Amino acid sequence: MTSxxxxxxxxxxxxxxxxxxxxCISVLAILFALVIAGLFFQLFGVSALKAYRLIFSGxxxxxxxxxxxxxxxxxxxxxxxxxxxxFRALFWNIGAEGQLLIGAVAATGIALxxxxxxxxxxxAMFLGGFIGxxxxxxxxxxxxxxxxVNEVITTLMMNYMSIYLxxxxxxxxxxxxxxxxxxxxxxxxxxAWLPTISGTRIHWPTLFLGLILSVLMYILILxxxxxxxxxxxxxxxxxxxxxxxxxxxVTLLVMFIxxxxxxLAGVGEIAGIHQRLLGxxxxxxxxGYTAVIVAWLARRNPLAVIxxxxxxxxxxxxxxxxxxxxxxxxxxxxxxxxxxxxxLIGSEFFLHYRISLLSRR
Amino acid sequence: MGWENWIITTFSRxxxxxxxxxxxxxxxxYAERSGVLNLGVEGMxxxxxxxxxxxxxxxxNPWLGMLVAGIIGGIFSLIxxxxxxxxxxxxxxSGLSLTMLGLGLSGVLGRGWEGKPLASTIPKxxxxxxxxxxLLGPILFQEQNLIVYFTIISVPLLWYILFRTRIGxxxxxxxxxxxxxxxxxxNVSRVRYICVLLGGILAGIxxxxxxxxxxxAWTEGMTAGMGWIVIALTIFAFWNPVNGMLGAFLxxxxxxxxxxxxxxxxxxxxxxxxxxxxxxxxxxxxxGTLQKRIGAPAALSxxxxxxxx
Amino acid sequence: MNKTxxxxxxxxxxxxxxxxxxxxxxxxxKVRRGEIHCLLGENGAGKTTLMRILFGLYQPDEGEIILNNxxxxxxxxxxxxxNRIGMIHQHFRLVSTLSVEENIILGLDEGTGPFTNFRRVxxxxxxxxxxxxxxxxxxxxxxxxxxxxxxxxxxxxxxxREVEILIMDExxxxxxxxxxxxxxxxxxxxxxxxxxxxxxTHKLEEVMKVSDRVTVLRKGKVVITVSTKDTDKxxxxxxMVGREVIFRFKKNPLQKKDKILEIxxxxxxxxxxxxxxxxxxxxxxxxEILGIAGVSGNGQNELAEVLTGLRKVWKGxxxxxxxxxxxxxxxxxNKLKVAHIPAxxxxxxxxVTLSISENLILNKYFYLPFSRGEFLNYKAIEENAxxxxxxxxxxxxxxxxxxxxxxxxxxxxxxxxxxxSKDPGLIVxxxxxxxxxxxxxxxxxxxxxxxxxxxxxxxxISEDLEEIISLSDRILVMFNGETMGILxxxxxxxxxxxxxxxxxxxxxxxx
Lengths: 361, 309, 511
Known about the structure:
Chain A is mainly alpha-helical and 361 residues long. Chain A has a domain at 73-299. Chain A is built from 15 helices and three strands. A three-stranded antiparallel β-sheet of chain A has the order 1-2-3. In chain A, helix 3 runs parallel beside helix 7 (204-223), helix 4 (96-113) packs across helix 10 and helix 5 (118-147) packs antiparallel against helix 10 (247-274). The longest helix of chain A has 30 residues, at 118-147. Chain A is globular. Residues 1-8 of chain A have low confidence and may be disordered. Chain B is mostly helical and 309 residues long. Chain B is built from 13 helices and two strands. Chain B has helices at 2-33, 41-59, 62-86, 91-110, 136-141, 146-164, 166-176, 178-183, 188-214, 226-236, 241-258, 267-271, 273-292, and strands at 124-125, 144-145. A two-stranded antiparallel sheet of chain B has the order 1-2. The longest helix of chain B has 32 residues, at 2-33. Chain C is globular and about 70 Å long. Chain B binds chain C through residues 161, 164-167, 169-170, 172-173, 176-177, 179-186, 291-293, 298, 306-307, 309, and chain C through 52, 55, 57-58, 76-78, 81, 87, 89, 91, 93-98, 102-103, 105-110, 114-116, 271-273.
């Protein structure tokens, strides 16, 4: 109990929480974060209101802005949906970034070096990317399930390893013609280019995949046996053992899905936007990490990720706008992300506990 | 002669690289012993690196830089403490968000500081009488900087406090069984706050060491995941400061030795070595833990509420 | 001041509310100095809540506490200790990885700064130990000590802090009958040295044996406070429950069927890799209840886990209806119609955030009709839930409600409904009535007896000796991972069982 000026606060646990309240608190958390971020704008001598107006008008106010928002949302959607599944099993997959990169690597390999005929090339790339990402994610999964190794560290370490793998490839065996000091691989043949909506960079097949998978994962988690097993394992691993659920199988399954979906995101980026393997920070400027917040904000609901990924797509695009027009640094998006995530989990306190005032007797 | 030089170089390099690892690990050991998992170490380190660099550059006083680094790390850790302890939020996600924040902030604020040279750094000392000892002399007592001494001395001190004093008993009780500690009149929150704060301060100083002493320069993201390796080392050390020292320096030595593989493995892949090593370290630790069941403080990463039975 | 009115502590009109329940409803309690005062009541009567208020873990909503004629506010355990009030909880508040002396000085300010003079600490511990007849090695780690010894550490902790009022919450629930005797002797010694003891219990035997006065609580109110010598067990029982209590169960005569379970020389390791079962062998027949008695921690939990596939067998064999199930998985055993009523029902038997319907099929979702192929059939799941809820009379607002909101008794009914609906041949029931109120306890016991009628073989593991004696057809006592003996119902008496629980083998009985 805390006391202040003759008033006493009582903190007691809530018994249940409504959807409306969840939404309300989440929105408030985001607003708080945006306010604090606004203070940073002031630090740089920019009016916060002006900055936010630019962010929203830049990302939603023009057709170009909307297109960019959607384009940024695609990898967030795929990674985010995958993360909701992992988080439901309490598997803290912070490695979506690395799984995305490996997916890109697999796609590149297939695009540049396989003999697969043109009409099958793109599907093969998606398949390869999925499997690549899935395998990269399965390694921490196996380590956790068999040895109990902390998955936060392993997935993170593998992110770094994947970054250097990509670096090695584009500076070494897959080195293509470089331009202006940046290294990249050869450009993909046209049959390996994803079609985009004309005039935009929206590679719609990936978007389509993302939307379908979001629905499929929703069905999986709520209406299938595996989904029930995942939920039981996440909510109570002891009970899962008691119920005879094979924890190894469930862990491998969630990471297969989560890593695979992130891999698909990587394929989309590489075949839809860049059409060659680039430096890792050009492929993904933190999509895998942002996806953690996307999934958290969506309260681990695969369908809700559609909306939260759009929201963050908006933020990223808006961030680009103010970077160009106001000269603010690009790392600002990480500040946004950190603040939003921070306020989100801080606000969860208000979901689980009720604070009431007791008057002093 | 060649052998001697090789040993001397290896050990001094291990000391140099191992010191920031050790500093971070010592702090994290205390935080986790009290039951709080601090995954924000990376963010605190990079903010420490940034603030130490800029402070030292502006004031030409490296000691002030280290002090500020510690303070900044401490402030960040207090935020994590508030969210994890008072608001009882998920500690993993809280730490992650602070790391993102720290990386982002330092990137934003650090723009424009890259490439600036640092003239002043922590002075090196030579302890003349001891510097003539064979092997040990050149490694430890010649041209060694004070932070290294400070770090090494704090190891037995921190060990003693943790295992032989009332304070240490309190900390270990809070991390093992907070309900018991609470019923014995201990303020669980306060103990945890202090331990997390210590962790943050040491993480900040560790980052400061990187940017002011190890390689006096500022680069965005220069900690390159060292914070995560600290977390792995904490587990490897079984939450014991002395093991922490052995682990940090061993890791540093292996890291240094891996460069010997340079002719055989390309530089990019070599850079991936520390991260692969951290994973291997964890595998070995986990296999041991399964056998012996000595493990983390039982209440690690679990928020405590009085009255929950 | 009149000598008999020398009260160590007084509680006036204490009220404490929790969401949905009034735990303490205007309680008056006066404890005389130097007496052993029992607080008697069934689960949920409010005894522990009241004492937690006295120890500063809870704050009363209304009412006051008077110590030495002064009104005091006990805002935390620290304040309680400052007022020389100590509490020993049912689940010991000891840090198992620390040593005895470290636990004793935990939270104390020895006045020498951060550094502790351990020699002085050990001297003081030694002094207290000899004064009260306790003997513990101060440097032993808690996890190395037996339960009775751990309790002594708790007492030492309190004495080290010079408490004058000692509250003990169900102190005998984890002790053997012999350890209980030793405890009572220690309590008398404490009282002779001037301490006042408040003793929470629901066991009438103990009240009659050790207390000077007893206060009966029921549903948050005081029913009566009376001198022990002026009352008897039957009266107290009636006051405690509000109605006549049947001490022994009316059981139909045993109709033993075929042998369903054969355990041969079972060796099993516990979580620490140490032997938990050392060559256990016995048989179980359909239609009988075999009670496994023994102080908690002597291998009973591991036995239950091994029989239900949750733990590996190191050596030995298990046959269930002539099928070797020694190395079968828990799911396979579940499919063979073995029911498991687990010990920690919330931790293991249910998932609190899932709905009641989902919990009712927790280990059945893979059967038709609950799932078809990969997909769950929620219609069938909900229908099943409605049927179970009415058959077992589970009180709940709605079957889609999350389990979290239910009471202990209803949660146990969910587990029973789920497990027993498969018409099991073998039921492994571990502490099935732990923490339940008297109404729920009776229901659970009746359900078990009905299954016995049906012909199921029941392995009943319980710490409640009264429960074991009244329900079992045969009783097997475990100690240190071995079977000490099996008694038929007619031969079962407290003394024999107590001796076996403490390690003496019972001669003559064929196992």
